[in-house]
Amino acid sequence: MEIKTVTFDQATPAGQCSPGQAWARLPPEQSPQQQRQSARRIKELLRQRNAVMVAHYYVDGALQDLARETGGCVGDSLEMARFGSEHPATTLVVAGVRFMGETAKILSPDKTVLMPDGDATCSLDLGCPAEEFGRFCDAHPDRTVVVYANTSAAVKARADWVVTSSVGQDIVAALHARGDKILWAPDRHLGAHIQRQTGADMLLWQGSCVVHDEFKADELQALADAHPEAAILVHPESPAAVTALADVVGSTTQLIAAVGKLPTNTFIVATDQGILHDMRQRYPERIFLAAPTAGTGGSCKSCAFCPWMAMNSLQGVEQALLQGSGAIELDAALGLAARKPIERMLQFAAAQRQRVQSSGDMARDTALFQNFGPA
Ligand code: 13P
Ligand code: SF4
């Protein structure tokens, strides 16, 4: 197996960032025939084990297809959490990164939660060690602690609220409206984006995502100039200069939904390129262009592919189901403490969904698409 070294921002709340070193292993490639055979065996194992797959849009397309075909879920991190907690299967196979598996285990402690590779991590999780984060919280006891889902269970356990990119802005807006001051961790770009959108008083941890931090505004502007008809879709983990150019800023699911709603045929996509598998399947007639990163040479940390999402493979799923590898184990007390702020988020999201459904109110969409003029 090939091992890749990844440099990430080892952040401190004081604002300094120093580079940290991590690694990711790339699974060996399978031929199309091997993939078909693997998928057949996995289908049978899922049935035998009363298991269901829960996959993120950034994992390999073959895993996304298999999750859908077998009645599982492909979604953003909020949808993955909700689906896993509500599904009656006794085993969840989470194809994504560790915080997603941990969230599933926190919400369903009695289920077996397996991952194709339990070492698949996230630079935001790595860049926010629980002890240091605890000291940050202790120093600001007057602030409501809001943490992004891309964190360890121990960091979540210190939080009042856990949020994902699909509901973070709305939750912070609601907290701001009731007068709360926020302590936010770990993604500095998402935190700053939410701060700009809501006007909330937010103290930010200084972490970043190795994928989204790489998008470059000047190059993106040049690409947009060459394709004036294109809508620009940006995940909010991207730097401010990049989100400033966006027609739509949103979670992975919100970006996919935007493709179906915007009156144009061409899209520039600033997020992990794994998402294009789903976008192309849903909208085969549309044209998708990858937003520029630092380049494909040595200076590119991710080249818009998350090295840890890439650790997920069909072989990994099969091994997990056969041998129980990649099983998530969590201390019960820690799980219980981390569960409360996640459940708050799920309840907020459920109430929000109900409000939108009952009023037929598309206010959220209107806000998302506010920048996009006629095609
Ligand atoms: P979403 O919740 O928008 O899918 O984001 C998860 C993530 O890790 C993005 O890098
Ligand atoms: Fe973490 Fe970025 Fe990978 Fe998402 S894309 S899992 S934020 S490193």
Automatic annotation (TrEMBL):
EC supergroup of this enzyme: transferase
EC number assigned by the record: 2.5.1.72
Cofactors (names): [4Fe-4S] cluster
GO molecular function: transferase activity
One of the Pfam families matching this protein, by short name: NadA
Metabolic or biological pathway, per its Swiss-Prot or TrEMBL entry: Cofactor biosynthesis; NAD(+) biosynthesis; quinolinate from iminoaspartate: step 1/1
Keywords from the named record: 4Fe-4S, Iron, Iron-sulfur, Metal-binding, Pyridine nucleotide biosynthesis, Transferase
Keyword ATP-binding recorded: no
Descriptive protein name: Quinolinate synthase
Species this protein is from: Comamonas guangdongensis
